[in-house]
Amino acid sequence: MAAAPTAVTCRVRAARTSRRAAKPSLNFMGRLPSEILFKILSYLDASALHSISHVNKLFSQLANDNALWRKIHMAALRRTKKRKAKHMDELLLQTATVELQGRPAGFWKCLHFKAALTYDMNKCKSHLALVSRHTGLPSRTERVLRDLHVTWEVTVSDQSGRDGRHELSWSQFCETSVSLCWSAGGCSPNYKQISTLQLHGVRRIALNCPGLKIPGWRSLMVKVDVQALTECVQVIGQDRMVVLKLLQPGVLIGVWRDQCSVAFVMFTLHFHRLVERSTQGESLRTYVEPIIKPPFDDIDPEYGLHGYQLHIVLHDTACEIMSESFPELFCRRTQISDGLIQLTAISRTTPSQHAALSGSISLPWRCEALQGTVENCCIMSLTLLDEFKNPFWCVGSPVAMALQTTPVSYDYDGEHFLIHYQDSDGRVKMELVKEQKQFLLISLVVFVTVCKVNKHFSKDY
């Protein structure tokens, strides 16, 4: 008499039977006429159709069919028209006249995705029109970036020509800027071998496709030739684990001490036209900012030297240290010196103007499981508006604070410090004093190059 089958044997047989049943099922789908498969796919929405295109070559070919995507696109346009969006009648008419024949596979899919991006951008333009009277910048920049599904990617290229594309580890929004950080983790590149760094804004299509890479648009924002900047790199601080190297304003690299490997890369981006820079450039070319010239004035002898408004924020990667606005800044024509106009926001000789900071000057960092704090450096976000309340000079960058051996003010007994920033458009000079564990800002002067003023206001100072 044969022995009764054990429970394990039964489960094995059941598994084999299941696998044998699955194979004919897949073969059955493959043997279906393309017309029937096409009919089945015609009931799917954009997310499902994009997802099924990743199953195999057959479904990739069918799911990119122009007729399917034309149907989805036209239905989306009709839904948009019902919401009474502008110019929808003209867009429907133009789209209806586009022929299916002669178009490459995926043409209508691409057209639909581009139209979706344009439609979302038009919806958000009204939010960008709401401008803060303190900063002169759109007050809902963060909300618009999130509504548009904007993210950022860092591309690291080494000297051998290899590229590594990385999504950001974290981002921190403040009042007028955003800090973006990529942590190297276990794939730390050698700092000396890095050739270029690129930051792209990436705008994804709003699709529900978990686990799949969503199609989108890449906009180049920053490209840094690391090798060309080797000699002018500024070390702004260090702790027991990392050294902070400022490659150029807004671009910071953390390098492990006593090593050459990169711990993290951090970008600081000012809010001025951040949405446009993140979405409207191209993969190899940055967004070109339109030139907005103020009205010509040949009557005012000091036109372009007065009516400035300054908004400055000091913060770290976690919280705000200071945020102040200074209206009606000016410089007399006779005070122009060394090719710079001087705008004094806080004078060291006027104690009533001195401002207390709400925290210490430090820059916390984190990388995978490690974290630390570098003292005497922070992030500065500066917005200088002209007399017409338009952004004239915008800066977002980490800055260092240095101890002054000679006191700049004898009204205070504590240690004196200096924060100095400089780029091609101007300089910022901040003098601070530490009294009873609290920092006081006792001087704030902004210097703008005469060349920038002359170019903007069509003057010849």
Automatic annotation (TrEMBL):
Family annotation (InterPro entries): F-box-like_dom_sf (IPR036047), F-box_dom (IPR001810)
Domain F-box: residue ranges: 26-72
GO cellular component: SCF ubiquitin ligase complex
Top-rank lineage group of the source organism: Eukaryota
A matching Pfam family: F-box-like
PROSITE patterns associated with the record: FBOX
Classification via SUPFAM superfamilies: F-box domain
Record protein name field: F-box only protein 15 isoform X2
Species per Swiss-Prot/TrEMBL record: Cottoperca gobio
